């Protein structure tokens, strides 16, 4: 369910009678010596780094204190000279937080069941010690690959899908131990990838374990959801809410009939099986989203396809552009600029004709003349952002773009566990020795996270870049520490892990 949240200082003004509360869409967490404000949503991994004083103040915002009463406590706890000074400080905290995160909202009865009560003492830490910490002390999320296998053979699959004999896979028992350890580390969100998460025979048991540990995730699949599988998903809890969310099943389709589906999915009858899956999921009340893959083959049929899905009762649709895959690619399926314009226009018409649906696009762009961009938000946002309150030539386009690029999550906020327990930092890189940074079949999550192997891969020393533009770059340390170099793009574009990404302005300048 979508909660109505009025952001203080944006949607409504801050007054003495305002009752600030941390939005249910955000989590204030202690991670080592760091205090983090993390987005709480499936497939999201962005966070902001919060100063200890701001963190302790935010922890008091649990919907029980009016603004004036909150300021009285802050005045006493932090030794402000008078109430006016405390009010000025708390106002700055709210405005600074909401400038980046929209995380402090007005308390309402609707939000009450989802408010988390916090102990401010948990967020009081030594600022100098917290500054010594360079990354999260434990991962904020995990990417779990239960299987590399899949029912289909899609021509656009981003995964390498390394073959693994069944006797080499992590046991269900070990997966459960990993999930329990993740929970103990404060991890609340995981991503499922692969292969298809439902392909493994113990998949439903493992999904049930994630649900039992109150993990938030989206279940992406192209497997045929039979009545039996749908019933089992109900049994393990996929139709039960977690806080204000109902976990989503994302079913990917490759066309509005058998022909385009066959060309993309590499399997006949995929369309009819997808229709069967939709009917079985709809009949049991699942939170279903259809990811409709837009290709040159079906570009002219998008509106009709959406109409077809609406008539089946589907209310959530994402139209996603075919994108080049590193391991497999079929250039004949790529969209032209004109295809994208046509698709955007068809989607705009569909929103007008079917106002009850949630329709987003990914990789398409807005229709010409559209009032707003309806592109889906990126999974990983800019980050980390620092939120603090002061109580006392690099503006060129290319460099600005580079500095605002998406943060590499690998080794900074997350890591990927492959089906046999080998750990990599990105689920699209080859599952091969140069990319392995640990093995949870013999190591704990924290042992891998803090291992020399992982740290040297995520934050490689300058010597590893010898012979590349990065080696002589005076911005290397700054680049690596905040957003990271994309080893995946370096590998696929240059054939080396330790080199600049394609869009690095320093590399382009030296080329």
TrEMBL record:
Protein biosynthesis among keywords: no
GO MF annotation list: catalytic activity; iron-sulfur cluster binding; metal ion binding
Domain of life (superkingdom): Bacteria
Keywords: Iron, Iron-sulfur, Metal-binding, S-adenosyl-L-methionine
InterPro entries: 4Fe4S-binding_SPASM_dom, Aldolase_TIM, Radical_SAM_PqqE_MftC-like, rSAM, rSAM_sf
Domain Radical SAM core: 136-362
Disordered: annotated span: 254-273
Membrane spanning residue stretches: none
GO-annotated biological processes: heme biosynthetic process
Stretches of the chain forming a coiled coil according to its record: none
Pfam families per record: Radical_SAM, SPASM
Cofactor: [4Fe-4S] cluster
PANTHER family found in the cross-reference section: PQQA PEPTIDE CYCLASE (PTHR11228:SF7), RADICAL SAM DOMAIN PROTEIN (PTHR11228)
NCBIfam families, per database record: rSAM_more_4Fe4S (TIGR04085)
Protein name: Radical SAM domain protein
Source species taxonomy: Bacteria, Pseudomonadati, Thermodesulfobacteriota, Desulfuromonadia, Geobacterales
């Amino acid at each position: 369910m979508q909660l109505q949240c009025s952001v203080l200082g944006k949607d409504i003004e801050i007054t003495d009678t305002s009752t600030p509360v941390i939005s249910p869409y955000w989590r204030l967490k202690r991670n080592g010596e760091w205090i983090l404000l993390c987005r709480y949503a499936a497939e999201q991994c962005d966070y902001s780094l919060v100063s200890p004083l701001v963190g302790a103040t935010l922890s008091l915002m649990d919907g029980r204190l009016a603004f004036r009463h909150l300021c009285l406590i802050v005045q006493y706890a932090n030794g402000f000279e008078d109430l006016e000074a405390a009010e000025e400080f708390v106002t700055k905290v709210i405005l600074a937080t909401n400038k980046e995160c929209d995380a402090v909202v007005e308390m309402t009865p609707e939000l009450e069941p989802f408010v988390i009560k916090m102990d401010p003492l948990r967020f009081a830490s030594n600022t100098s010690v917290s500054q010594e910490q360079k990354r999260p002390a434990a991962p904020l999320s995990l990417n779990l690959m239960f299987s590399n296998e899949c029912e289909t053979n899609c021509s656009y699959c981003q995964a390498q899908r390394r073959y693994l004999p069944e006797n080499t896979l992590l046991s269900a028992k070990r997966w459960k131990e990993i999930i329990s350890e993740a929970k103990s580390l404060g991890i609340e969100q995981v991503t499922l990838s692969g292969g298809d998460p439902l392909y493994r025979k113990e998949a439903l048991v493992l999904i049930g374990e994630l649900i039992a540990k109150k993990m938030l995730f989206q279940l992406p699949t192209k497997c045929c959801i039979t009545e039996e599988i749908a019933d089992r998903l109900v049994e393990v809890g996929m139709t039960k809410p977690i806080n204000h969310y109902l976990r989503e099943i994302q079913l990917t389709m490759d066309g509005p009939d058998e022909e385009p589906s066959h060309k993309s999915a590499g399997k006949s009858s995929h369309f009819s099986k997808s229709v069967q899956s939709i009917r079985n999921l709809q009949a049991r009340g699942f939170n279903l989203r259809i990811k409709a893959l837009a290709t040159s083959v079906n570009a002219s049929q998008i509106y009709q396809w959406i109409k077809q899905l609406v008539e089946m009762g589907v209310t959530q649709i994402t139209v996603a552009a075919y994108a080049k895959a590193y391991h497999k690619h079929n250039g004949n399926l790529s969209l032209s600029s004109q295809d994208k314009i046509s698709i955007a226009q068809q989607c705009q018409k569909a929103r007008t004709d079917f106002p009850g649906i949630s329709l987003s696009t990914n990789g398409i762009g807005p229709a010409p003349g559209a009032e707003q961009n309806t592109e889906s938000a990126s999974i990983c946002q800019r980050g980390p952002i620092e939120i603090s309150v002061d109580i006392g030539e690099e503006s060129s386009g290319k460099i600005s773009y580079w500095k605002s690029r998406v943060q590499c999550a690998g080794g900074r906020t997350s890591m990927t566990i492959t089906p046999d327990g080998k750990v990599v930092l990105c689920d699209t890189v080859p599952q091969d020795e140069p990319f392995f940074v640990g093995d949870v079949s013999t190591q704990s999550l924290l042992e891998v996270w803090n291992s020399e192997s992982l740290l040297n891969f995520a934050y490689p020393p300058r010597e590893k870049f010898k012979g590349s533009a990065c080696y002589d770059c005076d911005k290397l340390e700054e680049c690596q520490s905040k957003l990271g170099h994309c080893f995946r793009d370096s590998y696929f574009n240059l054939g080396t892990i330790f080199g600049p990404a394609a869009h690095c302005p320093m590399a382009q300048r030296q080329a």
